[in-house]
Amino acid sequence: MTRPLKIVAALIIVFSGIMEASDAAYPEGWESWPVEHSNRIPPAGEDLTALPPVVANTFKAYGWVNDAKGSAYNVRINPASRNEGGPPDGPTAVLELTDIGAIFVTEHILGEPQYGAFSIADKSDISQAHPSLNMKTCINCHTGFSDLTQAGVFALK
Ligand code: HEC
Predict the structure, then answer these.
(1) Cβ contacts of residue 23 below 8 Å, gap of 6+?
(2) Is the per-residue pLDDT at 80 higher than 90?
(3) Which residues form ligand 1's pocket by a CB distance below 6 Å?
């Protein structure tokens, strides 16, 4: 291998170590879960100052989607997750990005939230397609605002 190629190979190895695959599985049947509410990620550049900080942070983090034109989304909750003692193990909720055909997923395993990001068209894992889709990014925000979530889920609080 030439030296530049070696450097590229080394960078790919380092990068793939940082970029973890989805921890949650693709949640079969999510399309039939009721929509809890709908909203939109605004196009990049829109004034976010009036929004609660967590929402402004989220819209900033995903302002690049759909060529920075934003996307409508639905939050859907698995009916089985509406449980007094917290969501049971299994798929919990999705955030369906309707304009880009992707879902963000929360699942619970042994009571702990797991996250995932998938293409709707072919169910492929897209968590490594962009740094903001990586599991560390999801976990940092969802656990960082733990006073606003139940078991890592905003919509259950
Ligand atoms: C900067 C903060 C932030 C990041 C990063 C983030 N989220 Fe969220 N997420 C939110 C907020 C705030 C909501 C609530 C949006 C709403 O209700 O309109 C939300 C909603 C969700 C929902 C719907 C269920 C719920 O919790 O209300 C899922 C599923 C979800 N996110 C998964 C993910 C995944 C997977 C990632 C990483 C690919 C991710 N999130 C990254 C802040 C974030």
Answers:
(1) 107, 114, 115, 116, 135
(2) yes
(3) 39, 54-55, 57-58, 61, 75, 93-95, 104-106, 115-117, 133, 137-138, 141-142, 153-155
